[in-house]
Amino acid sequence: TVQASSPQAAHALRTPLGTLMNGLELIRLAPDAATRTQAAAMMERQVRQMMTQLGELRDITQGLRGLQSPS
Prior knowledge:
single chain, mainly alpha, 2 helices, 90% helix, elongated
């Protein structure tokens, strides 16, 4: 059910958000451009991962709505 999947979806999205927060801190504190560039690349990967996860969640939600529709 959607309610059972919600905690899993929330966890799957929180994980990359934590990494993004760490990356922002690293960019803010990094003394050199190479470290900032690496952090930005990591953050881009995490954003892409979240976009994929949100797309999958949207597809699942749409599929569940289709199952709940009266025939």
